């Protein structure tokens, strides 16, 4: 009989791992057929993750540069895959314990994209990745570990989005670049780290993106199906607190026509133990 992992087992395995916390998740906001774009200055990012919105700004050198880069990225996204609204907070102020954003980061609590002091250096691939997060704004599980597993899936889809629409297998920028043709190896300890608060999920998502990119580097129906799994209301918000339950709820949120193909890709990405329904004891 194969061993099934529960969240409790993940927590026990992950307790020995040390993982840094991450307050922000990448993301942006935009209009589907004709992008609606809003820039704010003077916002303040608080220690609890909330953002006090600043004033809307319509001119200035940095505003013009941010608008130009966002528009360029949006033009690469087909209408049916664009998010609805882009709200960008330019160089916000930070609470005493809040790490500053360098280039670009999506703040889930405010639904806005935060542009840091080095925001002008954000590449097309980074913008596409963040815009993908904006679009992937559907239902999420309530449990912490379940959320992290879905976050890893979301990171993978966002990387695939950026690579397929940007025409380049290398996404990210600088030391955070990820080549979808050369994903890192998996390890049991990395999957166990899902039990830890603040664990980063980009590396897990990188491997999923590589699986998706290998199947169809151009995106096409695979990209549309993957985006649709996370961009709306679904039963994912009520997913049970088991890995297999989360995966099943995710797949049920996917278009029926693409469900089997995505299930196969997930089965290649996830350890068998996380795909196996738990056996009551």
- Our estimate of the beta-strand percent is 5-15%
Radius of gyration, in angstroms, nearest whole number: 18 Å
The helix-strand sequence is HEEEEHEEEEHHEEHHHHHH
Continuous helix count: 10
**End-to-end distance, in Å?**
13 Å
Largest sheet: 5 strands, mixed
Task: Give the helix/strand class.
Answer: alpha/beta
* Widest sheet: strand ordering: 4-1-5-8-7
Average residue pLDDT? 83
Percentage of residues assigned to helices: 40-55%
Descriptive notes:
- By secondary structure, this protein is an alpha/beta fold.
- Helix content is about 40%, strand content about 10%.
- The protein is built from ten helices and ten strands.
- A hairpin with a 4-residue loop joins strand 7 and strand 8.
- Helix 3 packs across helix 4, helix 4 crosses helix 6 (about 200-215) and helix 7 (about 220-230) packs across helix 9.
- The longest helix has 23 residues, at about 145-165.
Explain briefly what this protein structure is.
The protein has 281 residues and is an alpha/beta fold. The protein contains 10 helices and 10 strands.
